[in-house]
Structure formats: C-alpha cells, structure tokens
Amino acid sequence: MGDKFVVPSSLEIERVTDISIKAHSGQRPVIWFTGSHEYSLQIGQSVRRISVEGLDLVRATNAPGNVVGIGGRDVAFRRCLVCFADGFSPQKYDGIKILSDYIVIEDCEFFGAPNQCIDAVGHKEILIRNNKLHNSSMGVVVKGGCRDVLIENNLFYNLRYTGIGLGGFTGPMWHNHNNTEAEVENAIVRRNVIYYDKPYNIGGGIWLKGAKNCSVYNNTLYGAGIHIRTGGDPQMPSRFSTNNEILNNIIFRTGNDGILVVDNGNSDNLRMRNNMYWKTAGAGDFKIDGIWYNFQEYATHFHFDIDSIFSDPRFVNERARDFRLRPDSLGIRGGVRLNASAESRGSDSGVDIGAFESQ
C-alpha cells in the first residue's frame, strides 16, 4: 500500500523464484533506504523470475553505492522510480547495476545517479524500454561483454555526459561472461530522444567504445554527437569498434561535443546512411582520426557515410523540446528503409529520419 517505509540497512532477496513485488492498485509505496550498503535493494544470484512493479526506490545516504543490484536471472522492473534523494552527496554509483541475464527495465524513471542510471556489465538479453532518465551523470551504459541488448523509446535529458554508451572501459576480472571479445555485441539502439540543456564536452550523446555488430538508428540527439572509439581495459584500451551501422539519426549539435567523432581504427566496416546533421553554436564538426572537418570536407574524404545531409531538421518546437518534424523538414521520408533483420517503418515511399514517424 502507499506509504513511506524507511529501511536503515538494505533489503536482500535470495533463494526465491516466481514472485512479484507490486504496488497495490492506485498506490505508490516509497522505500526509503538510509543505510550505507553497496546495494540498497539486492537481488541475489540464486533468484529466478521475479518482477518489481510500481515502487519508489530512493537511496538517501552520502555513502557510495547502488540503489538496486541485480544478480539473479529473469528479473523485470516496471513502472518504478529509482533515484538518489536530494540533499545527499554520494560520489558513486548507479541506479540499477545489472550483473545477470534476461533483464527487463521498462516504463521506469531514474534521476540523481552519480554515475549511470542503468549500468550493465558482461551479460546478455537485456531490454531497456520506455524509460525516463535525467539529472544524472550518464544514462545507460552496457559494457564488459554484454550482448543481445535492446535500448528503445527512452527519453534522456539533463545529463552531464553520455546518454547511451555501447561499450566502455572494463577491467579483465569483469569482462567476457558471454564469450565475446567486444565490449558490447549485437546491441540495437532505436527511437530514443537525448537532449542537453548544457551541451559542452559531453563525450557523445551516444558512444560506441569497443562495440561490435551494433545498430544505432532513428534516434534524435540534440546538443551532442555520436562518438565511435576504442574500449576495453582502462589501463590499455585495445578493443576497437567494428561492423557497426548508424542510420536515420538526427544529430543536432549545439555545444562543443562534435557532431561525429571516429577515432583511428574504429571505422572498420562502419556503415552510415541517411543521417541528418546540423549545428548552431560551438566548435568542432566531424573529427575523424584526430582531424576536424566541416561537412563538405568530411563527405568528400570519407565514404563510409552515404546519403547523409547537413540540414536544419525543423523541429515542431525546439524550445519546448518537441522534436517531431515539421512537414517541410527534409527528414520526412528522408530515411533509408531497414533490412528485415532490423525493422521496417513507414510507407513504401520511405521512412522518416529521427525518433518520430510523421502521420
């Protein structure tokens, strides 16, 4: 039932299967954690098939730690609020730390995370859908050998750094639970909106660091760019991004982040098509192998990008953060139809660029 329940230590769920922890209809219980444990709510490795729905999970302490740690398989969080309370100053860590397979995070809200709202390390079959993630250091990062990940229809805003990180820096003790040498493999990122009110030196609204066989399409980024870089061991990064595709995205740069950054060694079999680029204030456009180019120079020198355009997307209401496209936008029916292994949207005349399909 709806109430505030103060937990001075932590809650640990162990050795259970097939249970649901759910708010009563019309109620919104608040679980207020004041303890200094590493995980305020810990779902142990012995747990199978558990769902948590409709709860507010709040960490209210200065001690470093995570609101939720998931070690068990087949776990779902739906319609939950996961946050760090105002008035406290923890230096680390995450809203939800995922350390297992077959995880669903859906229709939730996250804020206040010192590091990531959602951090997944070294596991498979993870779905992150229809969430709101804001006022944190970063949004979602999947790394350490994660594979078969779907991140779709999420809203990210007021983040300090990246919205979505595919790959990253993972030490050897954490990496490769799934027998992949990539930091992340077979991830799909689609129909997400990421925007920044303070868009400076972010490091990519979406980054790929050591990513392999990943698809990034029909997303709208406002304020920051896409960065494709090397990941792996933080002491000696050596995992290059390879065989990735970036299609039908709007990248509207308003700060100093760079519209597109591709580091040396990370363009192997890179496929980019029908993206829409634009910028307002700020320095730096396209940085390839350490050298900056404007769009005309970039399009002339590099041929992994086909049929992309440099044009104002003409949002319905930029100030109100309404990123749908006006009828006169070149993004309307300006996208490339995706192959059967991904998804097909729109009419036979084409698909729209960005996260929203026009009517």
Describe the structure.
The chain is an all-beta fold. The protein is 2% helix and 43% strand. It is globular, with a radius of gyration of 20 Å.
Morphology = globular
Unreliable sequence segments: 340-348
Helix-strand category: mainly beta
What is the C-alpha radius of gyration, as a whole number of Å? Answer: 20 Å
The total count of helices amounts to: 1
Q: Main beta sheet: strand number and arrangement?
A: 12 strands, parallel
- Beta-strand percentage range: 35-45%
Mean pLDDT: 93
Proportion of residues in helical segments? under 10%
Kindly summarize this structure in a few lines.
This protein has 359 residues and is an all-beta fold. It has 1 helix and 38 strands.
Please name the defining characteristics of this protein:
359 residues, mainly beta, 12-stranded mixed beta sheet, 1 helix
Layout: helices, strands, pairs:
Blueprint: E1 4-7, E2 11-13, E3 17-22, E4 30-33, E5 39-43, E6 48-53, E7 56-59, E8 66-70, E9 73-78, E10 81-84, E11 96-98, E12 103-106, E13 109-111, E14 116-121, E15 124-129, E16 132-136, E17 138-143, E18 146-152, E19 155-159, E20 164-167, E21 184-190, E22 193-195, E23 206-209, E24 211-212, E25 215-217, E26 220-222, E27 226-229, E28 245-247, E29 250-253, E30 260-262, E31 271-273, E32 276-279, E33 286-288, E34 291-293, H1 295-301, E35 305-306, E36 309-310, E37 315-317, E38 322-325
Parallel strand pairs: 1-4, 2-5, 3-6, 4-7, 5-8, 6-9, 7-10, 8-11, 9-12, 10-13, 11-14, 12-15, 13-16, 14-17, 15-18, 16-19, 17-20, 18-21, 19-22, 20-23, 21-24, 21-25, 22-26, 23-27, 25-28, 26-29, 27-30, 28-31, 29-32, 30-33, 31-35, 32-36
Antiparallel strand pairs: 33-34, 37-38
